[in-house]
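Hi X.,

You mentioned you wanted examples for the new student's onboarding notes, showing what a folding record looks like when two proteins sit in one file. Here is a clean example. The first protein comes first, with its sequence line followed by its structure tokens.
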Amino acid sequence: MRDHGIMTALTDDDVVMDAWIARLQSAAQAGTTLDLAADLDPDSPDRDPTFADNWGAERHLPAAALRAVLIDRTLRVDPRGLRINGARITTALDLENVHFDYPLYLTQCRIEGLADLSGTTFKELRLTGSHVKTLALDGTSIGSGVFADAGFCALGEVRAPGARIGGQLTLRGATLANPGGVALNLDSAVIDGDFIADQGFSATGRVSAHGVKITGPLILRGATFVNPDGEALNLDNAAIDGSVFANDGFSATGRVSAHGARIGGQLTLRGGTFVNPGGEALVLDNAAIDGSVFANDGFSATGRVSAHSARIGGQLALRDSTFTNSSDVALSLDNIVVGSGVIANGMSVSGQARAHSATLSGQLELRGATLINPDGVALSLEHATVGGHVFADQGFSAEGRVRAHSATFSGQLVLRGATLINPDGVALSLDSATITTLILTPNQVLGTVSLVRTTITDLKIETDSLSDAPLIATGWVINDLHGTLRSDRDAAAHWLRTYPSGRSFTAQPWHALAAVYDRNGQPADARRLRYLAANEITKHAPPSSKPLRWIYRVIAGHGYYPLIASAWLLFALVLGIALVSFNRADFVPTNPAAARAAASAYDAINPGSELPHAITANEDCANYPDYPCFNPVNFALTNVIPAANSNLRPDWTTSSQASVLVTWGLPVLRISSWIFTAILLAGVTGLLRKT
């Protein structure tokens, strides 16, 4: 009886298997759908594979029956292929290396074991609404499309490395969940059509498409990728002929990488959210994008966004985007090449934004942008080249250092109304930059402005907003000047004096501005600025050299005002006249005998007059009318002013008994006058050294 029972059981299984094979063959031959849920209401929950545990045995499809039909070469299959709906496969589905040149539909089914379709060949594969545990499509070749959409759910890995899909791959609305592992693997797959994973697509675990080739667009609108401890999405070295759309609610928690990817159209990340705190949120290093990149209008990244050495054929749009990676690099565009402009109006960055050695063919717009990195560099454009204008105005704000060392700006660099705050360091550093036009009219600058070796063709500036901004401008070159400094040399001098304490003084910035004044027909302003620069040199000179510089300043205005020497020459003459006038007794006739003879002749005519014991300039000229009368002015002029001396023998001379004041005073005045005269002549002829 037992043996008979066993034989009966085996026969029953065979009957069941044969029945399923017959049903499947019939459906394949007719091209109709074997719908195991046909008797259910359209809204019945029993149509949902989530509740497949409640399905009856009549919906339990043996995996072996399906394989038997698919490998039956004698079966005449309708071009519409084999279509199954609402089946439950409770065992592993082994279709490895099956070649079925027709479509295979397994819709709203549940496969509870491994669904191994590795190496298979299908005309089309449709898994719409089905639930699987693990799906293997390694090396699979699909002549048309693959549809795992509209509620498709995988609770393990879906893998298709090296797969070739002749049409589109659609995962619209699918759910892939493999926390801590790989949710979807498309490495080196070839998709000859669109890749659509949008409208509620969700992946928990890593999604990898390294080296994938997609001839159409990659559409990820509204998709959600979650792998917080690793990569959420990997598109490294992907080749996508169309555009990539990861916008309109796209969200990724974990690293998203497209290193070395090639995108034939545009990359749209508008409104997308990328979250990987403390790590890289989005990597586009070495990517080549033929169109534009739109990461704007609500785009948000927490973690580093990097596009090092990326190539963008169109514009880079970052308008109203948010980048957050505090105290580290939030946005890195080093060595990027952008064929058009970078539009970042209203952008907000917490952390450093940098674009070292970037090449931007168009303009860079930062209007209303907010950059915050108080303990470091807020914006760095070192060695960058911008072919158009740079607009950091209309509310642009940077807390931290703004740096553009050795950058080249072919258009205007506009800082009108900007706010630059770095009170303990350099707020704006344009060292060694080359700028066609610098419009430096900020709203507020707290911190130093560094223009060391900066070359500026046209500087437009208002110093009122720079009152709290010390200037370092050693080696700067300015061709033209507009604004406050053009018309107010005192304002220019005031700003130049604000260089930070502790730095060695250099007069070059003063002379550079003075040269601009000279070229603009303002020689008086140029001379004044150079004179003030010389005063600053004296202030910072070693103590041993200061006295001579003070004297040179007083006598000749450091060579810039030589007419001061004429005033000193006149002062020497007046002093000489006073010295002679108040010391007349110290001057005697050059020819005493002639003077006494003249006095004797006067005495003979006027008896009773008393002849002086010795004739001096203090005597009344009436006592010797025939001898030239002493004139203090003429004597001082002759003996003090070099040019007033003549070859005629003077009538009066200094007495050998003269006081020390006269004996030494007149020679000192004469020597001083010679010095004043030499300085005056050198200044008039242009030979006077100016320093």
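Then the second protein repeats the pattern, sequence line and then tokens:
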Amino acid sequence: SGSCTIRTCWMRLPSFRAVGDFLKDRFDGASRVVYANKGSNRASHRANPSNLEPENPSHKPPSSRDLVYFEKSPNFCTYHGKTDTHGTSGRTCNSSSPALDGCELLCCGRGFQTQTEKVTERCHCTF
């Protein structure tokens, strides 16, 4: 009869923005965990996610969809010789930006000095 009864479905990934928003949401809600001491030191016991409990007892136990971490991040604002991270001292920042490139955030609340430069460039304009 000329009609088609086959239907093809395609799996699609979400947009890059949707994935980023999802991961950022998980990151913002991440909690530090420790291994629960349930009387076993076997590696299989430690590998079981149900043996993780929040470091802060007032927090809920993590679910399989929660993002968790074991170690605190280093303080990137200050110099650390052991890891050879130089901190943010001397970095260029945007004094009018409230975002990650803004001076208040990038300088870790230590205050900052501003320097104004006048730059003259040829624009190769035609009239």
